[in-house]
Amino acid sequence: MKVLSLNASYSMLFTPGESMNKNQISLPVEDLPTKWYNIIPDLPEPLPVPKEPNQGPSRLEFLSRTMIHECLKQEGSTQRWIPIPEEVKELYIQMGRPRPLCRAERLEKRLGLKKTRIYYKREDLSPTGSHKTNTAIVQAYYAVKEGKDTLATETGAGQWGTALSYAARLMNLDCVVFWVRSVYDWKTDRKTLMKLFGSIVYPSPSKQTNIGREILAKNPNHQGSLGIAVSEGLEYTDKHEGAVYCLGSVLNHVLMHQSIIGLETIKQFELVDDEPDLIIGCLGGGSNFGGIALPFAGEVLQKKRECSFLASQSAAAPNLVQGEYKYDFADVAEHTPLLKMYTIGHKTEMSPIRADGLRYHGAAPLISLLRHHGIVKATAYPKDENAIFEAARIFLQSEGWLIAPESSYAVRAAIDEAIRNEKGNDEKVICINISGHGFLDLLAYQEKMLGGKS
């Protein structure tokens, strides 16, 4: 009997040119982007500059002494392409970049789609399970260059706090995280991960800051919000020498660092000779949505392509859907300058949800301006999140892995758009950014999908 070699046996399973991962579009390391994209030069009008409030000390001066100077320089840059430092590129590669773009054929089959193709970008494959490491490692790198020894920050769902904890440890920095209390109380596994990295983690509002003590004096059971946690992180930084504040969303430099997602995705679509008609991402402040959408939006503004953009939100914080486009503070204690953005108000009380990373009062100024010009559209889903977790179940049982509750908002919107498109005559390509995995959110899935039973 003739014995086939292992390679020969495998070759019989595939036709010439066929790949074992034909639905996974990967880039070689050599194709990792070497520059971040800054959309500011391509906007339809100049981005409104941050403003000082009518009363009180200078907020711009406050930021200059609490935030990373290189990041503040990037914040106002009008340079379209910002070189990625070699050390950061090496760290990106260590973090698993470039990350794959996948064709969701099993999901398409599950939904019975004939005219709609769905792709998704896998940002869950970072060391901490979300896209947040894309800017965390950059901010930690610049902090070291500026002689800082401690990173301070806020976190909502916990992904940003975990990402910055990871980045701080790689760069031998200390890290202090103020975590929205309603999430801190139930995400014990993510809390453990942050502490394993060496971070100090406080529930917010906390007794570590004046604003925290003030809020707790009025309501000892206050469940917190991102706006409060931002205030605490800034106040802590201002009072501790050697500390610097790092923000995980909203600001221009954060979205610019995240542009590596969209830049990779553009190349990946070119490899399969396809292109998206619609980009969908979940949105709280705007980091993952901006990361995938802005490089494509820049090409739309430059008349190089046609594409639409949809932000999927929670009715708990529908800043793009129900907010007003105006100047507002980015935090509850009013430490920040006024930013022009779609906002529901920095003092607004918002009900906790399981996808708490989406519970923020304002949208990034860059995305807000695009929304104002009709380039970005938005939708909001009910606070009970039933439709959201059902979308997560559909994705899990078709594509085979568990996505974050926040990412489930993007999948829900994609499912709805795909089903709607099937009723028409046109073919459509939808691209989703999967911002993270749900392996540290299992309590929420147990509650929402299994009726609380393990």
Walk me through the structure.
The chain folds into 2 domains: 55-85 and 132-245, Rossmann fold; 96-129 and 259-449, Rossmann fold. The protein contains 19 helices and 15 strands. The chain has helices at 6-11, 59-66, 69-75, 86-94, 105-111, 133-145, 159-170, 181-184, 188-196, 210-218, 226-239, 252-258, 260-271, 287-301, 319-322, 365-372, 386-399, 405-422, 442-449; strands spanning 24-25, 35-37, 81-83, 101-103, 116-122, 150-155, 174-180, 200-204, 243-245, 278-282, 308-314, 324-329, 338-343, 376-381, 428-434. A 7-stranded mixed β-sheet has the order 1-4-5-15-10-11-14, with helices on both faces. A hairpin with an 8-residue loop joins β12 (324-329) and β13 (338-343). The longest helix has 18 residues, at 405-422. The chain is globular, with a radius of gyration of 22 Å. Residues 1-20 have low confidence and may be disordered.
Main attributes of the structure:
Rossmann fold; 41% helix; single chain; seven-stranded mixed β-sheet; 454 residues; four-stranded parallel β-sheet; alpha/beta; 2 domains; disordered N terminus
Helix and strand arrangement:
Elements: H1 6-11, E1 24-25, E2 35-37, H2 59-66, H3 69-75, E3 81-83, H4 86-94, E4 101-103, H5 105-111, E5 116-122, H6 133-145, E6 150-155, H7 159-170, E7 174-180, H8 181-184, H9 188-196, E8 200-204, H10 210-218, H11 226-239, E9 243-245, H12 252-258, H13 260-271, E10 278-282, H14 287-301, E11 308-314, H15 319-322, E12 324-329, E13 338-343, H16 365-372, E14 376-381, H17 386-399, H18 405-422, E15 428-434, H19 442-449
Parallel strand pairs: 5-15, 6-7, 6-9, 7-8, 10-11, 10-15, 11-14
Antiparallel strand pairs: 1-4, 2-3, 4-5, 12-13
